Amino acid sequence: MVSPPFFGRLASGKPLRNGIGRAIAQALVGEGVRTVFADVSLERVSAAIGASGRPELAVPWVGDLARSDACDALLAAAEALGEVSHFVHSASPPRREADHALAVDRKTWQEMHAVNLDAGFHLARGLAKRLIAAKRPGSFLFLTSLHAGTPRNLPHYSTAKAGMAMLVKELAKTLGRHDIRVNALVPGAIAAGGFVADASLAKHIPLGRLGEAKDLAPMALAVLSNKLSGYVTGAAFVVDGGLSLTNWFEPPVLDD
């Protein structure tokens, strides 16, 4: 079985040591699933594959999912490997606390929506069309956010994730009759990827600690599995240590 793209797209100059997409992809190859590792950085892709339990099952792909031609290229690369039955979309540009509603520029806004929402839709639809034509089942998973429903002082990020949350429901309703399931994981404060965690945040979390990428991977495997979650679609699974039970965000401090 070919398991398809696991995306991470961060502009950090340093290779990622962790990340939710990376953790899920590594968990999948650990289960014997052939998996495409996709990122905007060859260095990060190579490092993620090298740290995998079974690197021979990992296929590298490098491109910028803010570009529509890159999405087309990734679909073509995945199709060339054989039937793609599972899809995880965890791509997102980096977030900067300075990009609040009165400061975020047009390019940053557009890029966030292009990677999170536009790429997620076009890739999922492209893969779904192939599965429908082949009369084969599928399982898609989107990484959204608690801030799909709660303001984050980063309107480009929150609105993109809110769009993804509805996209999951739209796709689940449309594709269910074709035996293609579409679900979401909703991470909380996960010290991975583009989130630079402040340790003091742990006091707001009922389980008393920040999350890690490895906290998401087992749930991702369970939701992707047609054996374990075969009657689950259009659902959003919160993995946050209880953080969503509180609301600690204050409005941003604006410059005079």
Q: Fraction of residues in helices?
A: 25-40%
Q: Main β-sheet, in a few words?
A: 4 strands, parallel
Rg over CA atoms, rounded to whole Å, is 17 Å
Mean pLDDT: 87
Structural class: alpha/beta
Uncertain parts? 1-17
Write the element-wise H/E pattern from the N-terminal end onward: EHEHEHEHEHEHE
Q: Roughly what fraction of the amino acids lie in strands?
A: 15-25%
Number of strands: 7
Count the helices. How many?
6
The shape, in one word, is globular
As laid out across the biggest beta sheet, the strand order is 4-5-6-7
What is the distance, rounded to the nearest whole angstrom, between the alpha carbons of the first and last residues?
57 Å
Please characterize this protein's 3D structure:
It holds the Pfam family adh_short_C2. It comes from Bradyrhizobium barranii subsp. barranii. This is SDR family oxidoreductase. Belongs to the short-chain dehydrogenases/reductases (SDR) family. By secondary structure, this protein is α/β, with parallel strands linked by helices. It is 38% helix and 16% strand. The chain is built from 6 helices and 7 strands. The chain has helices at residues 20-30, 42-50, 68-81, 106-134, 155-175, 213-224, and strands at 2-8, 34-39, 58-62, 86-89, 138-143, 180-187, 236-239. A 4-stranded parallel β-sheet has the order 4-5-6-7, sandwiched between helices. Strands 1-2-3 form a 3-stranded parallel β-sheet, sandwiched between helices. Strand 2 (34-39), helix 2 (42-50) and strand 3 form a beta-alpha-beta unit. Helix 1 (20-30) packs across helix 6, helix 3 runs parallel beside helix 4 (106-134) and helix 4 runs parallel beside helix 5. The radius of gyration is 17 Å and the shape is globular.
